[in-house]
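// run 5 | inverse folding | seed 20
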């Protein structure tokens, strides 16, 4: 290939097309339990997180629901991944290797939110949410229906099990019951829906038995067949922890605060100083985002420690 601006731009058009095809074709999981919020800010105050909506009887003037008295903010972080396209490779028409690299970059861009959401969930037993407690905790503060201070739990330690009907009820059943009976800060049902059972590869077989088998390992009927959607996620690092995640009030358990979705940048001018000095053109992807936690009432998880 003759190295000139026209030919290089054509090469990069093909690289972008390959990148975009891979980006579109890659299946991700974060959207099942993450709400995406676009922002122009580097740091976004999330003080609106903390109060799910409520009805009240309209007597006298309307009462504006005030923001909860918590301080919680998320700060976006910049990320990049760059590949060099060597001038010598283009001169030798070695274009195939860059189609492969562009495919990899497209997949990497698609998985970017998955990586952030996975990191947030892996840290959720210690990572703090809006109320100053770990997202999964046994003592989240709230207000009971009688107006008095109270606490609630969205954390367990039970091992996920399909060994017996009793073990299934004590693990998956207990988690589902806890999540479906969650109350907001006025003591009203949260009504969590579209619940997924999120598990690491080590627990996939057990989760699938619970979701699909007519009978459990003790021969007794499986009360959870067809009642739960299983998602196996390689992003999870614990081999024992398992998660029940749902949505309510227009929100899911995690929040992707996105200042810039993955986009491409490139250096294609043969006279650019970097190209002149290094003999390589550049194809880069950039993003600016963070994942944090929304309402703890939208999730329940067990460490699986027993």
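// decoded
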């Amino acid at each position: 290939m003759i190295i000139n601006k026209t030919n290089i731009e054509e090469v990069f058009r093909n690289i972008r097309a390959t990148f975009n095809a891979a980006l579109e074709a890659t299946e991700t999981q974060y959207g099942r339990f993450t709400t995406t919020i676009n922002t122009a800010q580097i740091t976004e105050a999330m003080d609106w997180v903390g109060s799910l909506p409520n009805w009240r009887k309209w007597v006298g003037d309307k009462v504006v629901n005030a923001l909860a008295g918590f301080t919680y903010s998320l700060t976006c972080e910049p990320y990049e991944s760059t590949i060099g396209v060597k001038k010598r490779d283009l001169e030798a028409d070695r274009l195939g290797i860059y189609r492969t690299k562009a495919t990899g970059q497209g997949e990497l861009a698609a998985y970017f939110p998955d990586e952030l959401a996975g990191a947030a969930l892996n840290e959720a037993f210690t990572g703090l949410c809006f109320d100053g407690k770990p997202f999964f905790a046994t003592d989240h503060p709230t207000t009971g229906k009688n107006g008095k201070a109270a606490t609630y739990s969205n954390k367990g330690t039970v091992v996920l099990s399909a060994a017996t009907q009793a073990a299934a009820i004590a693990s998956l059943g207990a988690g589902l019951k806890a999540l479906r009976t969650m109350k907001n800060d006025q003591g009203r049902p949260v009504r969590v829906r579209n619940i997924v059972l999120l598990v690491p590869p080590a627990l996939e077989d057990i989760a699938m038995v619970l979701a699909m088998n007519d009978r459990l390992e003790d021969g007794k009927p499986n009360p959870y067949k067809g009642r739960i959607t299983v998602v196996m996620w390689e992003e999870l690092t614990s081999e024992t922890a398992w998660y029940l995640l749902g949505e309510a009030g227009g929100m899911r358990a995690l929040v992707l605060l996105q200042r810039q979705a993955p986009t491409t940048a490139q250096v294609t001018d043969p006279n650019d100083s970097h190209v002149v000095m290094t003999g390589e053109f550049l194809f880069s992807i950039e993003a600016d985002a963070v994942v944090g936690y929304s309402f703890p009432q939208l999730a329940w998880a067990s460490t699986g420690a027993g």
